[in-house]
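Following the same procedure, the fold was encoded as tokens, giving this record:
***
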Amino acid sequence: MSDEMEAAKQGFQIEAEELLEDMEEALLHLENEPDDMDSVNAVFRAAHTIKGTAGVFGFDDVVTFTHVAESLLDMIRDEEIKINNEIIAALLQSGDHMAALVNFVVESDDALPADLLKTSKELIQVLNECMGKSSESVASDSEVVEVVEQIERDNTVGADNDNWHISLRFGLEVLKSGMDPQSFIKYLKRIGTIVSINTLVENIPLLEDMDAEECYLGFEIGLDTEESKESIESVFDFVREDCQIRILPPNSLISEYLALIQELPEEDTMLGEMLVKSKVLTAKELQGALNAQKVISDSGNVKPLGEMLVDAGVVDKNVVEAAVEKQQTVRRIKKGDVKSVRVDADKLDALINLVGELVIANSSSFLLAERSENPELMEANSITARLVEEIRDSALRLRMVQIGATFTKFQRVVRDVSRDLGKNIELTIIGAETELDKTVVEKIGDPLMHLVRNSMDHGIETPEERQQKSKSLQGNLKLSAYHDSGSIVIEVTDDGKGLDKEKLISKALEKGLIKENQTLTDSEAYRLIFEAGLSTAKEVTNISGRGVGMDVVRRNIEALRGTIDVESEIDVGTTISIRLPLTLAIIDGFLVGVEKASYVIPLDMVIECVELSEEDRVASMDRNYISLRGEVLPFIRLREMFAHETDSVTRENIVVVQYAGRKAGIVVDELLGELQTVIKPLGKIFSQLSGISGSTILGSGDVAVILDVAALVNRAANQESSAMLTTSSEAALQLTSN
């Protein structure tokens, strides 16, 4: 397969995924607004576009199945069928199956596996029932292709599926003009093969009323030919004014016409011109339709050209709709002047990697410029550094995507799971426009899925339980996102029963996860839900309750250099907060030093830097906190944490950082300034190290460690709590002895 064809197939797969997402969103909207015809049309367009494009690639399995769903949607659009929850459920399942079919045919050249064929048959049966067709009217034991071909035949008026169809009605004056109808039929044999011919005699009058010089015949002809529509039309040039002629293309050409329409230039073109350019319509047919339209308009009636062409049987309805959609899309683009380019993700990742290397190289040249003490070189390097920073920011923005697309996918999950559980749950989305790195978005989907399903299963009560607690019968699940201190915070909140602290502790004791005499804060107790094997569910369901998943959630979040916290209140609800870095590639950092080692602190988390006075240094030897403007500030000494050999220093500084609303200090020897930091992941051998989230390469070629501020803040806070607890215990013992 050529690279171009492979790229085109991949493009179709991506386009189909986007269309099916739009289709699902519109269907979910129709559950609440069943009379919204705009949403019905959006669902139809999605299915129609997938069918047409699949036909271009020869993906018959996709075409045959999608056609049935499209037929149902067409009946809904024509108001022959009223949409209801049963139909919406069937169409949602059909959308899922379309996605599975597209993914399979794009990635494999094999025949459809048995499970996909079986699902196709079952869903076709359901869709036909929604259209009012009895099970007997569909050959349930035949192959899917045969079923849909029969449906195609039922919906085709007078046309042979694989041949051109010529509907010919000779005028009464043809014979008087010296023309022999039979000669035209014979001439058709020169450009193709006549596979069927049906002579129409219903217009022949009684013998006594017949005029021997008048022609009363008509023909329905099936023609197999490689010639174009214009060539077939030219056969009848001499009698065109005295005849009624309709030339319908083979069904196999419909998908080709659809493709030609999509390939037309992005120009604001009239509908008739588009149909002629795509070879659907001949110039003579267009002129005839325009003349007829003018006559109708002069009489005071207005009828769109596309509707006239369809009514006259000149052009297939699907082709006209595709042309109209193309026309509207072009006009929207022209109006908004929107320009976008779809870029392969691998190419984007390669660009980010190159920008990272550029940042490192620029740091090296900047260091050399400083050492040279050449002012002109330093000035030129400063300009380069500014441009590199702008390039870095622009490249990173390319990878920033809104989290709304990820959140929207959960509307379907909440709908399906809540029905399985017999619960009435509404999903609320806040902050859908919040942006974060594409890589983070891709990896956050599965953890969020676990949390959402757990909240619905364990958190939100049944309507009966909520009624007993005087709550609204409808439970609420909220997904929200916002930026905070260089991080993105994603919250999953439910208004359910909340977490039972005592039950969690009891279960943890039973599993040996904590000790008998261990005292836990509320936050520590709630975080037990992320321990492997811990579940307080009374029974195992197909949703959750086996004690697996939540520990995986925690590990996946931590692998993204994030943290996860829980807040809960009995009968009020639970909020699980995920805090993640905005990007996993390049950040602004603050470089500090301890002896000869260098450390990087993410700049977004740095609040201020304070020199540690001699008095505070002496006082802090026995405790891990100081008073900063009347506020207790716990701190961590990097010298002690990373076991540097030298203990005595002449000067120390505290870098005050903040994470998740909590402040802490990081004590270092030197403050070395800001720098652009390219994050390099640590190997697996270092994965268990606490307080380190990665590494970077400095301009000097040395390696610097990137600090995990979240872990350091938690560590400092725990040390402060322990120190205060020890002090309180000693004071209590002294008071008792006195």
Observations:
- The chain has five domains: 3-155, 164-336, 345-399, 401-581, 586-730.
- The two ends are 90 Å apart (CA to CA).
- DSSP finds 24 helices and 21 strands in the chain.
